[in-house]
Amino acid sequence: MSELHGLQHQIGRLLEVGRPRDARALVGKALALDPADPDTLCLAGRVELAQEQRGEAERRAHEALARAPGHDGARSLLFDVLLADKRHADAEEVVLERLRDDPADPDALADYAQLLVQVFQLDKARALVAEALRRAPDHPSAQVLDAVLHVIRGDDLAAADRLARLVAADPEAAHVAWTAMLVLGERGHHRQALEIGRQLLRRSPDDRELVDAVIEQRLASHWSMIPLWPLLRGGWVASAILWAVAVFGLILLRPFVSELALLGFAVLYLALMLYSYVGPPLLRRWLRWRGF
Amino acid sequence: MRGGLVMDPQLLQSSIRRSSVTAIYSLRAAFYTAFFGGPFAAILIHRRNAELLGRLDRDRGVHIAALVLALAFYVAGAYVAVHPEVLAGLPPELKPAQFVRYTSRLVALLIWAGLYFRMRDEYRAARLQDAHLPGWREGLMWVLVGGVASVATVMALAVIFKAL
């Protein structure tokens, strides 16, 4: 393996394990060896994207495409930059160009599906994911998206089934752990989701999105949230049902129970509602301050 | 094509516009709008989300059904306003106006829940992606518009019932 290829391999591995700062040092060396190599330019762009330098990452992508039109890695990088920037129409143009060259490319199909989920075109996203999985049943991104789309549909069993297949294929992969955390959280298994989240956090302690997700799982599994379990589990529909039961229950029970009992029931309901407003935000702040 | 599989060519047609939305009003915003604004406000906020998602045509029937339910409630409410003896069976502590207010809220929440189930996938997708528009200003506007429209409708119907 040439020195350049060796460096490219190392940069790729460092990006995979979430060490873009270390990868950046090697990028400089790789670019010194060949500043025009499209693969190196793409890796440099990936490092910049990982460090939220989207402008630079986009410039690298265009530079790579100028040197190697149709370079798959460059188009993929450009797509990711546009997606991160929420320039969805432009991202669609890039991914459709990839699919025009190869309509059977499962990476491009999965990327397009991911884009469509962000603009709420869920039916088309499902069709694309199904297509990607038909062509590549073990495609990791397509499988993750499939699980996410099942969660969106509320089909927890199918999401859990997809998760089980992901875990069987690659139990150590970060994307599998993320999906597991999502699916388990949605199914109400917050302690398991929390444990997985903590393991992910050890690998990526600076990931803010991950920190927020783990805090939410810690909150949902905290003993002080037990009284709010129906509301946390059932969401706003549970809140509406609880209101209706409380108000109309009080009206219907009035002829049958004492004033004291009715007062107690009303106070209990109001206390629960007040706690549901005040408790979670306070606990969230406390968890951020104290750790979890 | 690879493997001889045939893909629907529509899947590879562009479908994202510059105006495609990436966020909608949250279910929480819709809940509070319905709770405080009444049945009309519940319809308005869900309808706005349907508009943002480009599915007004698809949901027209459901919105009309919700409007019919809201109007049926207002007709009943106006009738009770003109003929309060209809609620004579209520406990003496519960005034007819109070009962109508609670029922208005119940109807609003039923409409809210029904329209939520219609767009449940989109609301879930928005929650998972934390893709929500700031809603308090618009929610307040719909609460006011819905409230004013409700009162005006009931008053107009009450005038009609009195005249009959």
From TrEMBL, chain A:
Task: Give me the segments passing through the membrane.
Answer: 234-253, 260-278
Q: Is Ion transport found in the keyword set?
A: no
Look up and give the organism this protein is from: Nannocystis punicea
The protein's matches in Pfam families, at most eight in alphabetical order, are given as:
TPR_19
Give yes or no: UniProt keyword Protein biosynthesis: no
Keywords of the record, alphabetical order, are: Membrane, Transmembrane, Transmembrane helix
Please report the name of this protein according to its UniProt entry: Tetratricopeptide repeat protein
Q: Which InterPro entries match?
A: TPR-like_helical_dom_sf
What superkingdom does the record give?
A: Bacteria
What lineage does UniProt assign to this protein's organism?
Bacteria, Pseudomonadati, Myxococcota, Polyangia, Nannocystales
From TrEMBL, chain B:
The beginning of the lineage is: Bacteria, Pseudomonadati, Myxococcota, Polyangia, Nannocystales
This chain belongs to which protein, by name? DUF4149 domain-containing protein
**Membrane-crossing residue ranges in chain numbering:** 20-44, 64-82, 102-119, 140-161
Please, which domain of life does this record's source organism belong to? Bacteria
Q: Write out the entry's keywords from A to Z.
A: Membrane, Transmembrane, Transmembrane helix
